[in-house]
Amino acid sequence: MPNRLKRVLAGLALALVAMLPAVAVAQTVDEIIARGKLIIAVDTTTPPYGFLDAELKPTGFDIEVANKMGEALGVPVEFVTVTSPGRIPALLTKQVDAVVSIFSITPARAIQIDYSIPYAGQSAVVIAPKSTAISGHADLVGKKVGLTRGTAEDGILTAAAEANPGIEILRFDDYASLLQAMVSGQIDAMGGGDYGEIYLKKAQNGDDFEQKYKLKTFYFGIGVAKGNDNLRQWLNTWLFTLKSDGVLADLSMKYRNQPLPDLPVF
User: Fold this and answer.
1) Helix or strand or coil: residue 147?
2) What predicted TM-score, i.e. pTM, was given to this entire model?
3) Which of 117, 137, 241, 256 has the least C-beta neighbours within 10 A?
4) 26 phi and psi, to 5 degrees?
């Protein structure tokens, strides 16, 4: 390759790098405080954990947890909106300090990122019209089953489809689109959180839907970059105090109208 062409390509590469968003370089609690802000990835399409209020401001269980984290550190919180598939990349590319976004703790994800101890939990369930008889994976054969891409229920129901040929999986990028597909009849059933039925009921004919069976109970942790033990340990200590003081229990009743489940530790 001629030297001139090499120089041109090198210049283009540098220009592309310069166009990328600045990364969140803070790796410790002290660095976050010194920088003067906490950068958190959230999903605002997953009520009651993350959604936009009437003034289009992020709110919900996860949002309040993130804001309380900033208060404890004495810095404001800058939110970066992601969807479920974007949570891990946000940490791998160091665009954020942490992810607070119904981030279920799984061994597969823990290969790429680190987790705090759980701060919340819920059951993943299958939801469908009351008129549809579904009690297990086998009853999904011949049906279109929707789910949010990259979620824990994605893994469970994908495995179920492999073991039960005839289940058609349709993936959506966010929970709002999944709920709309359920209401509109685009899908026959959906996999989602046990709170999903609440939001279906807000739609026309929403009372026609019900939970059919539980897939698994998941626990949510705050995600941080792999090896960031300083921030992770601070988060564990801070979450321990929130749980002990009843703050997490109050948030669960405020946003989920359900008691906080017993949270395991590790």
Assistant:
1) strand
2) 0.77
3) 241
4) -65, 135
Those residues whose C-beta lies under 8 Å from the C-beta of residue 118, and which sit 6 or more positions away, are 105, 219, 220, 221, 263, 264, 265
User: Cα 9 vs. chain centroid, distance in angstroms?
Assistant: 38
As a whole number of angstroms, the distance between CA 202 and CA 91 comes to: 34
Encoded tokens for 192? 């989602």
Q: Give 65-109 pLDDT, tens digit per residue.
A: 999 999 999 999 999 999 889 999 999 999 999 999 999 999 999
Specify the 3-state DSSP secondary structure of 5.
helix
Residues 145 and 157: their CA atoms lie apart, in Å, by 8
The burial class, CB within 10 Å (0-12 / 13-18 / 19+), for 206 is middle
> CA-CA distance, 57 to 231, in Å (whole number)?
27
Please determine, for residue 203, whether its predicted confidence score (pLDDT) is greater than 80. Answer: no
52: tokens are: 């936009």
Per the structure block, which two tokens stand in for 22?
């600045």
Residue 258 and residue 220: Cα distance in Å, rounded?
A: 16
Dist. CA 210–CA 200, nearest whole Å: 9
Q: pLDDT tens across 121-162, in order?
A: 988 999 999 999 999 999 999 999 999 998 889 999 999 999
Strand partners, 58: 52
Mapped onto helix, strand or coil, the DSSP state of residue 158 is helix
What is the rounded (10 degree) CA torsion for 108, 111, 114, 118?
20
